[in-house]
Structures are given as structure tokens and as C-alpha cells.
Design a protein that fits this description.
Blueprint (H helix, E strand, L loop, with lengths): L15 H19 L6 H18 L6 H12 L6 H18 L9 H12 L38 H13 L5 H15 L6 H15 L10 H7 L1 H11 L6 H39 L10 H8 L5 E3 H8 L3 H14 L2 E3 L8 E4 L2 H9 L8
Antiparallel strand pairs: 1-3, 2-3
């Protein structure tokens, strides 16, 4: 059983090399968020979705990007997606809540942690524990009946309250650099494991809460969970080292986290460039129609918003563009003729279209690969 030292009294020492890596990662985050800023909302939404999906993947929830899009379409049509899809979609909702709502408050407290967790589990089979801190002992690994042989045994439930208060105090502080703060809060949260389920996904959402609160990532979420999921053993090993501060575990965790953040930022920047290039290719395809759509046509607006909606229906397109149904249907027909949108069905009801090439690009991002464009 491990009862960690409170973060508020933890001595954090960065040697020159580690300080340089942390500084480089923070500058990379700032640069990422300054290039385009809030005008690139659909791309920001794409990165947030990717981060949420990868965070679920760390927990063993495997769902292809096309399968997830189909599940969203199913839910949009009033049907019930599969259990895995529900959990992944809920993780997206929880991440949105974390970065767009709880990160904006003046003070972050345990109620905000519970709100993120509630959003994560309220539509799943674990809804009975959504937003509720555990009252019994839990553990990681081993079997379901005894902590004997477990990989890690978190602190007892009756010790959590002051440790969680301390965690929130650190979230509200600005004494540490933003990246160090995010790294330590995440590792400490995973060490506390305050919920019976959903700790990993909630803890990774806290990373982005801090990065946004500190102003280092106001627009773009770095897909750091893509890096974690791509080498899960390294991620777990680094967290395990953190729990042994006497062996420079804290410094080792900080170095791992900063390096992973750098990798995530480089991936994000590469995909922003790639998606922009793809959008310009779609616009060129639209310009090559015998009758080019007017400058204010809905087709152009749809292209602007496709990164956040790689699969869409006419009602979705109407909602996101704010255009009339007739204009949207006209725009969709133009985009289909140009080859920008690919029909996913031949029927006249509940019709959906896929953005040509975008899913392939997103799959590369979710696998942590640099983009390959034809």
C-alpha cells in the first residue's frame, strides 16, 4: 500500500538538462497554440477527439475511427451504439467538459474532478459510481478478490480527502511551471486512484485542464495520450518510477512527460498542416466543377468545418453551418459531384457522407505516425 507525500510539500528539482527539455516542450505548446489560434476551431476539435480516443485506447478500449463515426451517426439517429462506443464517446464528452468548462472556473476543486468523472461514466454500465469517490480499497493488477499480487495498491479510502484537497491546491497554484504542474498532478492523481473506475481517463483530462488554466494551451489540446497509448509499457513504467522519489523517480517521470509532450506537439503541428492541405485540395476540387459555387455557398462552409465532422448528415451540416436546409442539400450535392464527400448509403433516409481521405489521415494520427499524403 502506497501513501504518497503531498504535492504541496514535494521538493521538485530540475537539473539543467531536464529544465531545458521542460522549457522546450512549453515553448512548443505555446507556438502550437499561437499559430492560427481560435480561428482553427474545427482542427482544435479534431485534436481533442483524437486525444480522447487515445486516452480510451490506453485503457484497452479499441475502436477504429470509422467505427466511432458510425457509432456517433447511430446515436444521432436515436439508436444505441455498442458499449465500447458509448464509453469512448463519453470520454470525448468528459474531455470537452474538462477543457471548455471546468478549466475556465476561478478555482478548481474536488467537485470539478467529480464532474469530469460523472460525465465520463454516467451513460455507461458503471453509472452507479459516476462522480463518486471510492469508499473502499482498490488496487491495480492481481485479481478481483485480494490485493495480494497486485501491481499497485493505492492509499486507503479514508486518507483520500486531504490528499485530494492538496492536489486541487496545486492545480490552483502557479508556483510550478505549467508542464511540471500538469505532469505532477497527473502522476499524483493516478497514484491516489480515487475512483473505482475511470481514473486513467480522468487523470489525463486533468493534464489539459492545467495546460489551459495556465494559458499554455488555450486552443489546441496536444494529443499526448497518442504517445502514451503507442508505448503503454513505457508510460506505466514512468508512472511507477514516480512513486519511488528516492530513486529520482520524480525527475524520471518529468523527463518522460516532457519528451512525450514534445512528440505530441510535433504530431499535432504536422497534422494541422496536413489537414489544411487536404482542405485546400477539396476547395480546388470544388473550383473544378463546371459551375463553381458562389463565394457564400454552403459547400465552402462545410469544407471549413469537415475536420471536426469527418462524417456528416444533412441535419448535422445544417446545424454546424447555420445555413438553410435547401442550401445545405445543394452544397452536399456539389461536394459529392466534386468528390469531396463520399456517400455512405444509397437510400433517401438517414443519409450520411464521409470526407474523402480524412479518415485515413486521422487513423495515421491516432497511430502516432507522421502524416502521409498522396
Amino acid at each position: 500500500m502506497h501513501i504518497p507525500e503531498r504535492l504541496g510539500v514535494l521538493e521538485v528539482r530540475l537539473d539543467g538538462a531536464l529544465a531545458a527539455i521542460v522549457s522546450e516542450a512549453e515553448q512548443a505548446l505555446l507556438t502550437l497554440n499561437s499559430e492560427g489560434g481560435s480561428t482553427l476551431g474545427p482542427l482544435a476539435r479534431l485534436l481533442l477527439r483524437t486525444e480522447s480516443i487515445a486516452s480510451s485506447k490506453v485503457e484497452g478500449m479499441q475502436l477504429g475511427v470509422r467505427d466511432l463515426a458510425r457509432a456517433e451517426a447511430k446515436a444521432e439517429s436515436g439508436a444505441t451504439p455498442g458499449a465500447t462506443a458509448i464509453e469512448v464517446l463519453a470520454n470525448i464528452d468528459a474531455m470537452v467538459l474538462a477543457v471548455e468548462s471546468t478549466a475556465e472556473g476561478t478555482r478548481f476543486a474536488t467537485d470539478e474532478i467529480r464532474a469530469i468523472h460523472r460525465r465520463l461514466l454516467e451513460r455507461t454500465a458503471q453509472r452507479h459510481i459516476a462522480g463518486e469517490f471510492r469508499t473502499t480499497q482498490n488496487w491495480i493488477g492481481g485479481n478481483d478478490y485480494t490485493p495480494c499480487g497486485a501491481d499497485f495498491v493505492p492509499p486507503p479510502a479514508d486518507t483520500l480527502a486531504p490528499l485530494l484537497t492538496d492536489l486541487c491546491d496545486v492545480i490552483n497554484s502557479d508556483l510550478l511551471s505549467p508542464l511540471v504542474q500538469a505532469a505532477l498532478v497527473h502522476a499524483q492523481f493516478e497514484t491516489l486512484h480515487p475512483f473505482d473506475d475511470g481514473n486513467g481517463r480522468t487523470g489525463r483530462a486533468l493534464v489539459h485542464v492545467i495546460l489551459k488554466r495556465r494559458g499554455i494551451a488555450p486552443h489546441f489540446v496536444p494529443p499526448i495520450s497518442v504517445v502514451f497509448a503507442g508505448a503503454k509499457a513505457s508510460y506505466i513504467a514512468a508512472l511507477t518510477r514516480y512513486r519511488n522519489p528516492g530513486d529520482d523517480g520524480v525527475a524520471g517521470w518529468l523527463e518522460y512527460f516532457a519528451t512525450a509532450t514534445l512528440r505530441a506537439v510535433r504530431l499535432a503541428r504536422a497534422y494541422i498542416v496536413a489537414v489544411r492541405a487536404m482542405q485546400e485540395q477539396w476547395r480546388m476540387m470544388l473550383r473544378q466543377l463546371p459551375v463553381v459555387p458562389r463565394a457564400d455557398a454552403a459547400a465552402w462552409a462545410v469544407i471549413d468545418l469537415l475536420p471536426a465532422n469527418p462524417m456528416l448528415s444533412a441535419p448535422v451540416a445544417t446545424a454546424i453551418t447555420g445555413r438553410s436546409k435547401s442550401r445545405v442539400y445543394e452544397g452536399i450535392e456539389q461536394l459529392v459531384t466534386a468528390g469531396v464527400l463520399l456517400p455512405l448509403s444509397t437510400g433517401q433516409r438517414n443519409r450520411w457522407w464521409e470526407a474523402a481521405g480524412l479518415f485515413d489521415l486521422i487513423e495515421q494520427l491516432e497511430q502516432g505516425r507522421l502524416p502521409v499524403l498522396e
